[in-house]
């Protein structure tokens, strides 16, 4: 098995996840009153991020390795960047 750092796994997960959101939105676009597949996946990314952060926090307290804490910072940074991007695109 490849020994990939936790930070790289976190970044790759979110890149692939948001590519899947984009593809799902193009495959089943959202309408006026109906959410599409991309929107539903985007909403699902919020609890996914929270659960992943809690797992990484547990691993950090168990092992005291800084790479888990860095991954939590990356998740927080991704959400801040996404929030700023969505606020300033309109």
TrEMBL record:
Keywords, alphabetical: Membrane, Transmembrane, Transmembrane helix
Transmembrane segments: 39-61, 68-88
Full protein name: Multisubunit Na+/H+ antiporter MnhB subunit
Species assigned in the record: Flavobacterium nitrogenifigens
